[in-house]
Amino acid sequence: MSQDSGGGGGDAAIEALSLDLVAHALAGVRDPRDRKSCRLVSRAFARAEAASRRACRPLRREALPRVLRLFPALASLDLSACAGLDDASLAAALSGAAGAGAELGVRRVRLARASGVGWRGLEALVAACPRLEAVDMSHCPAAGDREMAALAAAAGLRELALDKCLAVTDVGLAKVAVGCPGLERLSVRWCREISDIGVELLAKKCRRLRSVDISYLKVTNESLRSLSTLEKLEDLAIVGCLSIDDDGLEMLRASNSLQSIDVSRCDHVTSQGLASLIESQSFLQKINVGHSLHEIDTCFLSKLSTIRESLTVLRLDGLEVFASTLVAIGDSCKNLVEIGLSKCDGITDDGISSLVAHCNYLRTIDLTCCHLITDDALAAIAENCRMVECLRLESCPFVSAKGLEHIGALCSRLKEIDLTDCCINDTALQHLAQCSELVILKLGLCSSISDKGLAYISSNCGKIEELDLYRCSAITDDGLAAVARGCKKIRMLNLRYCTQITDGGLKHVSALEELTNLELRCLARITGIGITYIAVGCTCLVELDLKCCYSVDDAGLWALSRYSQNLRQLTISYCQVTGLGLCHLLSSLRCLQELKMVHVSWVSIEGFEMALRATCGSLKKLKLFSGLRSVISPELIQMLEACGCRVRWVDKPLVYKG
Q1: Secondary structure (DSSP) of 628-642
Q2: How far is residue 644 from each of residues 18, 84, 624, 649, measured CA to CA in Å?
Q3: Is residue 586 within 8 Å of residue 613, measured between CB atoms?
Q4: Is pLDDT above 70 for 372?
Q5: Pick from 249, 198, 205, 263: which is nearest to 230 by CA?
Q6: % of residues, the chain, pLDDT over 70
Q7: Which of 338, 341, 407, 530 has its CA 20 to 30 A from that of 621?
């Protein structure tokens, strides 16, 4: 009684505050779960949330109408994970909100991978959101010119992302260019039907463009000639444009506003062409020439000195880089904050030492697959770059605990480190544990680390959100217990091929309430009991990989059906599940969008058909054994494809491994 009275008094006190004050207080609550708790205990907080919430990411189309009515101040709407969203449901939700008298002030909409939304849905969106400024339709391969015509009605559009919208042609791009002259940012990566003609019209109509990404298009130098007329162009990406060469870069000299240029994987670009471009650009901040130049000439290196004050990011991935090259870069580019040397031949300790001796402001250093690097390079990095935040050392076999001792002692701001396939042990993790700001830690293929090393990490690295233990075969349930005690914020956990893990370990993992991605591939000792622990404890789970977990059965699926309502990607290939369990799972998980189930041998043909008919049209990707193609009803496959589901048939032998 006294508790109820106290709670009511507190609620009354909050009710006495103005809506603005309550909203200001609620703005300081960052954790979504804490915000939900505030809404549940006080109507004042609920009203303040409704009146002030600016962004939302609904996971089910059934929730969209309520979201639009409840949060009239929404400015950003992410529908990329909204299962089953199609034209009809989107239009109905938008018209319902407008019918309720709410003015939709939505400015940004994300529809990436929302393959069910076509031109009708986009027309309804544009009509209902007159202030629309940004739309992301990336990875909607069926989106074409008719969808572009619908978007062209949004005259105030400033940003548009169309990556992998494979059906968009010059005609569709022309409609957008004419209808949205204020466009400032455009990405059409992999839209292979767009040519020089479309880019030319774009440059003529959208004079305010600041950022353009035409990567992997079949365009030529003529496109660069057109883009060079844009007086405000700052960011240009032409990755993998194989018909562009030095002559095209020469045309870009007409514009002197570039701040970022990405010519990676452009096979016909040379050092001379880049040097010529750099000479004309006074404000370049980012240069990416990875996997493009056949050699780095002195002409390119000498021109870097002309932008020494502005250049902050330089990526040379996949090139042949000698110590003398790094000496020249260090002398010329002392303000670098990021250097990319992934898969570069010729990288040695001497070269790295020379570079970091002059580039003390480096925050990101990528040395992936630089096989000659040793602990001496890490010592130099630690001594000279104490503000480093990201260090990628995958497949650097000569890096050991000695080098990480320097990193741990001097690089207190380190947030991300990749040690995949490095020869490190528990002592190395003991040193690394001094980096209390760590957020991402990748230890895949580090077979010498054990539970003891994880205990060191968990004792002082409570901010870790991503932990990769792929094929760390010495890890046992005790190690997971330590992780669960000390690293409560983990969202992504990779335990693939950690073969000693049992249901007991998963019981510890279930304490990670913020976990969204969990990979358990080839854990032969776990059963449905362990999956039940995960389902009950990790209710935020979005992606789960159970491939080759041979002892997982229907009990695990039933638990997922009941508790894992946010699950969007699931792999159950080779699991011992039946048609009954599969049918119950697919009829219950309304958010499930991607399912892989190859060789689920206990499921009959009837079981497959019943389960797939129960998916409610939410699936976007489905992976099945090719042997089923001739026995599953063609009408069912047509129905799935009509709902926007892409079925991939794979021919893999049925092999069970103990």
Answers
A1: GTTTS-HHHHHHHHH
A2: 47, 9, 16, 16
A3: no
A4: yes
A5: 205
A6: 95
A7: 530
